[in-house]
Amino acid sequence: MSTVAVSATPPTPIAIDASKTSGAPIKKKPYPFWLGGVAATIAASITHPLDLTKVRLQASGDKQMVDSIRKTVRTAGVRGLFDGISGTWLRQMSYSMCRFWAYDESKKLIGAGKDAPAWKLAAAGSMAGGIAGFVGNPGEIVMVRLQGDFAKPPEQRFNYKHCFDALFRMVREEGVSSLARGVGPNVFRAILMNASQLASYDFFKAELLKTKYFEDNIACHFTASFAAGTVATTVCSPADVLKSRIMNASGPGSNSTLAVIRQSMAKEGPMFMFKGWVPAWTRLQPTTILIFLTLEQLKNLVDFSRKSGFEFL
Question: Per residue in 226-258, pLDDT tens?
């Protein structure tokens, strides 16, 4: 009678991927921190002529947006509508890159998830605005000065060649402290802008997606960004006017916020704080729409790249 040998070693268990059986979702890799800065740079390049007109209206005695545009074209040609665009690029790649990164990090910090209430989104936006407004202040000054230069009489112009020339000359001629000129109003405006624009976009987008009329597509992104642009323009107008006037000023005592307010109130009354609202809305509305449409498409591009195996994004 034959005997069968039985192994004392137990069979090796089959390895099972716990992620496929537990039902736990795989955590999505965050988007690159610089994505918002790139989206803002693209949008600002397209709307630069309107931004240029808004700054010149706020800093000069021009009364109408169309008249200001005609004056620019008459004195410098169509190319004049893109005066100071290097300052715009510097500002977007410092201020905007920082604010989008800080906004995402602030939402994580305070637990503002997908369906977070408006106050949490506004708090995250305020935190991001405070950080980005400080970091991006030199770029903001350079942008405003480059854009407003040709609206001044020739003897009062800075005549900067480009954004880096402006930075070097400011430090050399006015001291390092000149890079902080108007930092108070600028940070205040940045807090208002991000609490209204970024938070409004996330809030309106979430509310629209709760209805049966919208899906997560361009139509939803356009509608949410349109509403966010209107809210942001109205909230930010007073700080925007003060920021432009202080940063365009030069000389002793010209960087005092209270002095600028007193002088402007005496000459123009309280409505000076909303001077340039229409061009500001006209500029900020397409900028806001372009920023968020571009950002959403860049996110889609990153998702597509990752699915295709390009993990460097």
Answer: 999 999 988 888 877 877 777 776 666 566 777
CB atoms near residue 162 (< 10 Å):
15
Distance CA 16, CA 33 (A): 35
| Confidence band of 10 (pLDDT split at 50, 70, 90) | low
Whether 224 contacts 230, CB under 8 Å: no
C-alpha torsion 242→166→136→237, nearest 10: 20
At 103-162, the pLDDT tens digits run 999 999 999 988 899 999 999 999 999 999 999 999 999 998 888 787 778 888 899 999
Task: Between 217 and 266, name the one with better pLDDT.
Answer: 217
Structure tokens at 30: 């965050």
Give the chain's largest Cα–Cα span. Answer: 118
**Is residue 32 within 8 Å of 302, Cβ to Cβ?**
yes
Closest CA to 255 of 184, 188, 182, 190: 182
- Give the predicted TM-score (pTM) of the model: 0.75
**Token digits of residue 219:** 């139509």
Length of the chain: 313
* Cβ neighbours around 79 below 10 Å, total: 9
What do you get for the CA distance between the two ends of the chain, in Å?
69
Amino acid at 238: P
